[in-house]
Design brief:
There is one protein chain. 4% of the residues are buried. This protein is an all-alpha fold and 75 residues long. The protein has 4 helices and no strands. α2 packs antiparallel against α3. The protein is flat, with a radius of gyration of 16 Å. The mean pLDDT is 94.
């Protein structure tokens, strides 16, 4: 219990270091599942397309191949 605050902060920082578009898409898909219970593939295709066609994705692949950390812009 005495380490809870630090664990929560570390977890939040770890999540925040991820791609902003992916974080947005994750929250949005959770919202859609809560609303509809089950999603058809068409109900999340826009989220997948947004993430995988983004500048962030392209730059992240380049960063991975260059063995350097990605820099997220949210675009």
């Amino acid at each position: 219990a005495d380490q809870l605050d630090q664990v929560v902060l570390d977890t939040a920082h770890g999540i925040a270091e991820n791609a902003p578009l992916t974080l947005w898409a994750t929250k949005e898909v959770v919202r859609r599942v809560q609303q509809h219970r089950r999603l058809t593939p068409a109900m999340d295709h826009d989220l997948i397309t947004t993430c995988y066609t983004s500048d962030d994705f392209r730059h992240a692949v380049e960063a991975f191949l260059s063995k350097r950390p990605a820099v997220w812009t949210g675009r």
